[in-house]
Write a structure and sequence with these properties.
five-stranded mixed sheet; 14 helices
Amino acid sequence: MSGTSLDGIDVVLADFSLSPPSLPGTFYLPYAGDLRQRLLDLHHSGNDELHRAAMLSNELACCYAEAVASLLNKSGVKPQSVTAIGCHGQTVRHCPQPGKGYTIQLGNAALLAELTGITVVADFRSRDIAAGGQGAPLVPKFHQALFADPQKHRVIVNIGGISNLTSLTPTGGVTGFDCGPGNLLMDAWCLRHLGETYDQNGMWAGSGKVIPALLEKLLALQFFSLPPPKSTGREVFNLSWLEGCLSGKEKPEDVQATLLQLTVTAISRSVLAYFPSAVEIYLCGGGARNEELVARLRAALPEKKVELTDALGVDADWLEAFAFAWLAQQAIMGAPGNLPDVTGAKGARVLGAIYRT
């Protein structure tokens, strides 16, 4: 998994022969050099972008292959022992709206299969969009398989570049949607002003003060008032949008504090509006390690238990990569990977294109 935060590649070794499934190995490969910036540049139209996209797809495939090889070497597992690689790819465009209906994740899956000698499943989102869905979020069906409890209403909150929610009711009902920005605005603002790729533990945000007028201006964006199903990305939440809401007189640390509060408010309001009966909230993704963010979420949801998915036996850092391993298994078995109630698709669909070895 290489997500909206554009920081690197999470790769896990997933064993589904056990119940519950386990993660015998994990590995993280950060993006090197200017790869992150070149990927960011492709989020907008530019010169020779088709060629640049194709070359970046090849480069990403090499990075994915390196990450897989490192994980297998670390775990003492041979490639022929692996059934398949589930490769999400790097999203550079996501436009699921009616009349557009497309999504682009870079990563040459055919090349990845050649480099690793392992069957690859990729392009998970396109089939759901073709069926009238948002193509995201796709993790709720996996959350259901792993975390549903017949006695408790749980909500799983993935805080990556974008934040998304999965509601797991005791009766088996599952819903979910993207609720707004996670880390991507905070990361971008931090990089611009501190030269750091992220605000460790939210310390910089914690040094500032929330600007109420700015927070309300940001929350006035139409996306926040749209009902689910809905999904979003950098097309909506980016520095250009943020700058259009600023006067230019704000202290950078106060803007960072406000961006953190934006993420907290988007999550907490969505939980209270759509899943008020939930009693347990479990966090995953990079934002789950932001102590300031977690503390504010607990303050915003005082009557609910707020913990990390670590408490359920799955490290919050690796849950999304784990989900795409599971989605690859679903594709190999010919089983659906989406939830129409979540994405808005016309029905359950087998997700992913398979490149067999």
